[in-house]
Amino acid sequence: MNGLSLSPIARRRWAGASVLALLVAAPAWAQEATPQANAPTANPTAKVTAEQPTPPADPTPDADANPDPTSTDTGADEIVVTGIRASLAKSADIKRRSTLIVDSVSAEDVGKLPDVSIADSLARLPGVTAQRVEGRDQSLSIRGLGPDFSTTLLNGREQVTVGDNRGVEFDQYPSEFFSNVNVYKSADASLIAAGVSGTVDLRMLRPLDRKERLFIVSGRGQLNGIGKRNPDGERWGYRATATYVDQFADDTLGIAIGVAAQESPTNYDRYEAWGYPSLTNLSQNCTGDAAGPCVLGGAKPYVQSNMLKRYGGVGTIEWAPSDDFHSTFDALYTHFKETQRLRGIEFPLAYNVAPTAGTVTVTDGFVDKATFSPQYTVQRNDLNDRESDMFSLGWNNNVRLNDVIQLNVDAAWSRATRQDELIETYSGTGYGGTGQRDTITITRQNNGTYQIVPTLDYANTDIIRITDPGGWGYNGTNAVVQAGFQNRPKFSDDLKSLRANLTGDFQGALGVIKGWEVGANYSQREKKARFTSYFYCPSGGGTGCTVASGTPQSIAVPADVVLDDQVSLAFLGVPRMLTLDPRGVLGLLTPVFDNRPESLAKVWSVQEKVTTGYAKLVIDGLAGGKAIKGSLGVQVVHTDQSSDGRIAGLNGGVVTLSDVSGGAKYTNVLPSATFSVELIPNGFIKMGASQTMVRPRLDQERVSQNVAITPGNVGAGSDPLRSPFSSDGGNAQLRPYKSTNIDLSLEKYFTAGGYVALSGYFKHLTDYVDPNNNVLYDFSPLLTSLTPAQQAIVRAQNAQFGLFKNPANSGRGEIMGAEATASLPLRMVTAALDGFGLFGSGSYTHSAVRYDSAPATVQTVPGLSKWVLNGTAYFEKNGFQARATYRYRSSFLAEVRGLSATPELNTAKGETILDAQIGYEFQSGALQGLTILAQAKNLTDQEFFQYTNGDPRQVRRYQRYGTDYYLGLTYRF
Is residue 127 over pLDDT 50? Predict the structure, then answer.
C-alpha cells in the first residue's frame, strides 16, 4: 500500500470503518416508499389485531400481526421473500411503526432467529454490545450501560433470572421459541419496568397470526475448532428443535408448541496474572517505568472445557371467538445444566521469591524475562457444576367493552432456581511450600502473557501429592490443611404480577388527541441466596482440618483418580500436568464446614412489592399537514422493599451470628412524552423525553453484613483505614438509579426496502449507586472482643471508629451518544444486484459519572465501549443465502467472576469478531422444504483480554476460544 503498514487491529478497524461508511451513505436515487395506512396497535402485553377500534399508538408493535412487508402481489401469483431479507424487512417495519425509538431482530422463519443465539442477534443492533462469558455472547450493554441498567421482558412481562442478580442470562432462552426481539431505547408510560439504558422484549410466536398448519424440525451439529482441552471434555455438540403450529374452529383457536434440546461445548485456554509488583520493591505495585519496573507477581494458566446442556419447551394457546374477546396463554420451561472442567497450575513467582540475580531482562519498564528459584507451585484440578430450572406462565385477556373502550387483564408468574457446586482440589510437592522446589523461567510474549517454563515433571506422582502446597488454608482463627474446597451457592427467584388497563377513544374534536389509556400493575418478587462451603483435608487424624491438631499434611495420589490422558499447558510452555478426577480426589478427603464470617454472611433474601399506576393521552392525527403520533403520560411507582439476612462476626475466636432485617418504602413519579412526526413521505422524526429508573443489583440491596475484627491493627493509630474493626455489607434502603432522558431519531424508509436512521440521546443520571461507599462507624460495642490491654490501646488512640462499606446512592453524571444505522437492499441501486444487501451501524458513547466520595474522579461505567461498529453483507436469492457479520467494540470495563465467584471488574481490550454463514433452501422437487445451513463463529479467533491499573501491558486475564463451526438441516413439512 505504498508504504502504509497497518497492524492487525488497525486493519480490522479500517475495514470496519470502510464498511460502515459505505452503509451509511444512502443512495440519493433511492425511491421513496408509498405511505402505508396507519398500522393497528395495542397494549404491550396484548396481540395486535386489525379489528381493534382506533387503538392507541403502541410502543410494542408485533410484526407477525401484520401482512408481510416483503410480499408483493402480482395479481396471479404472490411472490414472498423469506430468510434474511424477510427478517430485515420485518425489523424495519417494527421500527417504522413504533412511536418509540426501537431496534429489532426478527426471525427469518418460524423458529429461526438469524444467529446462533439471542445475544448474538442483539449484538448486531446499533448501540448494543455483548460481552463474551465462557466463550458465549451473554452480557448485554445498551447505549454504554451494562445489564444492571436494562430490563428484559417476555411478551411484555418482567422476568426472573437464573443469574446472581437481575441481569438476564440469554442462554436460558432457546432462540427458536421467539418470532422477534425488540430493544426499546426510549420510554412510554405503558411500558412497565422500562430500564434506564433500554428494555429488551422477547416476543413469542402467535399461532393465529399464521394462516396454515406448520410442522418444522431442525438439527445442527457443532464443532469447537480449538480442540478438546481436557481429556474428559467434549468438542462436539448438537442442537435439535421441533415446532408445531395449527389453527382450529374456523381459525378462532390456535396452538403453538416448541421443544428444543442442546448440548453445546466450549473449550479455551485461559491465563490469569495475580498482579504486577515493582521489581525494585516487591511489596509495592509497579509504575511501569525505570523507577518501578513491572514484574509478574504470579500467574495461573488453565485449560477449560465446558458443556452446556439445555432442554426446553414452550406452548401457546390463543383463542379469539369473536372480535370482542381475545385470550392468549403462554408457558415456557427450560432446564439448564453446565459442567466446567478446569485444570492448571498456579505459580506464585515474585510474590514468593525475588527473581534470581543476573536473569532479569527489562524493556520499557517491564520485565521481559526472569528466572525464579526456589519456587513452589499449586496444581489445580477443578470442577464446576451449575444446574437451573426456569418456568414462565402468562395469561392475557382482551375484552371490547363497547365501541370505544377495551379492557386488558394480564397475569404472569415466573420462577427460577439454581444450584452450583464449585470444587477445587490442590496438589504439589509438599504442604506450605515444603517438598521439592522448582526453577521457573518466564518470558513475555507479544500478546502480553508470559511463557512459563518449569524444570519439574508435574505429571510425576512420585513427587506430586494431594496437599495444600501454598499453606493457604485458614478458617478465620487457625491454619487448616486445605487440600480441597467446595462452594455450593444456591439461588431462587420468584416473580408474580397482575396488570389491568383500559384503553379508549375520545368522542368529539380534540385535535390530535385521539385516545387515552389508564392502567395499574402489581408485582411481587423475592430473590434468595444461600452460600455453603467446606474445607477438605487429608483423613487420618486431627480435628477440624487444623494443622495444630495434627491433621495429615498430604497424601499420595492413588492411581484410580489419575486420568489416562494428561493435560497440556503448552500454550504457555508447560508440557503436561497431573490430570485428576476432582470428585475422586474429594472422596479421599474429609470435609469440614466453613464457618468463617465472610462465608456465613452470604445468606440473604430480598423482597420487592411494586405497585405501578399509569395514565397517558394518545396522539394520532394531523398537525400542520403532517402526520403525528405519540403519547403524553406518567407513571407513579410505589415500592416496598425489604431484606432478611445475617450479621456475621468473630468475637474472641467465636463466630457470632445475628439475624437482621431492613427495608424502605418510597414513591417515584416518572413522566414521559413521545412523538413521531412524518415530515416527508416515510421520513420520520421521533422524539422522546422521559424519566426512568432501574433498581440496583439485588446483592447490593441485601441487608447482610460481615464484621471483621483484626487484632493485628491494635496500636496502628486512629486512621479508620487501619482500625481493628471494619464491616462489609449491602444496603436494604438503596433507591433505584434514576435517569432523565432526551432521545431523538431521524428515519427514512425506501420503496425498495431498507432505511437509514440517525439517533442521538442524552441521559442525566442521579442516585447512581457507589458500590465502594464507606462510612465512619463507631464499633465500641465490639471492644469486649479484645483483651483488656488491647481495649486500653484502642480507646487511647480513639481507634474504635472504623469503616463500614455499604453501597449508597451518592453518584451522578451524564451519558450521551449518537447512533447511525443503514439497511440497504442493493436492488435499489440496480436490478443486477437483486438479492445483495448491506446492514450496518456505528455508535459513539461518552460518559461522565462521579461519586460524592471522589467528586474529582470520573468513574468508568461497566460495559461501556466508546466506539461500536457492526456490519453485515448478505446475498439471498433462489434459495441460496450467504452472510458475513463484522463486529467491533472499543475497550470497556468487563465483569468476570473472580475468587470464590465474587464479581471482579477490569478493563477489557477492544475486540473484533467476524461470523459467517451459507445455506441453501430447496424450493421444488423431492427435497422441497429442506434447508441446509453452515455457520462459523469468531473466524477472527478473537481473544478476550483484560488488563489492570489502566496499563494494557498489565494483562490480568487472557482467554482464547477459537472458532466454532455449525452444520444444520431444517425440514418444513
Answer: yes
CB atoms within 10 A of CB 633: 24
Q: Which residues of 285-308 are buried (b: 16+ CB within 10 A; e: fewer)?
A: bbbbeeebbbbbbbbbbbbbbbbb
CA distance 201 to 62: 11
CA distances from 10 to 7, 151, 263 (A): 5, 35, 37
Determine the 3-state secondary structure of 34 from DSSP: coil
Question: Can you list the positions of beta strands (E) in 581-682?
Answer: 589-593, 603-623, 626-651, 654-680
Q: Please state the pTM of the whole predicted model.
A: 0.87
Confidence tier at 219 by pLDDT (50, 70, 90): very high
Cα–Cα distance for residue pair 26/20, rounded to 1 Å? 11
Taken in order 616, 617, 621, 624, the sign of the CA dihedral is negative
Sign of torsion over alpha carbons 64, 69, 71, 72: positive
DSSP symbols for 888-924: EE--EEEEEE-GGG-EEEEEEPPEEEEEEEEEEE--S
Strands 150-154 and 198-204 come out as parallel
Q: Which of the 8 DSSP states describes residue 506?
A: -
The sign of the dihedral angle between the CA atoms of 951, 954, 956, 961 is positive
Backbone angles phi, psi at 172, to 5 degrees: -75, -10
Measured at the CA of 950, the angle between CA 947 and CA 951, to 5 degrees, comes to 65
pLDDT digits (tens, 9 = 90+) for 134-170: 778 878 899 999 888 999 999 999 999 988 888 888 8
The secondary structure of 381-397 as a DSSP string is EEEEEEEEEEEEEEEEE
Question: What is the C-alpha to C-alpha distance for residues 691 and 888, in angstroms, rounded to an integer?
Answer: 31
Contacts for 678 with CB less than 8 Å, ≥ 6 apart: 35, 626, 627, 628, 684
Kindly indicate the confidence band of residue 267, based on its pLDDT and cuts at 50, 70 and 90.
very high
The contacts of residue 346 (CB under 8 Å, 6+ apart) are 298, 299, 300, 377, 378, 379, 380, 470
Where would I find the beta strands (DSSP E) of 700-835?
705-709, 725-729, 737-749, 755-770, 774-778, 801-805, 808-825
Sign of the torsion formed by the C-alpha atoms of 551, 557, 563 and 565: positive
State the average pLDDT for the chain.
88
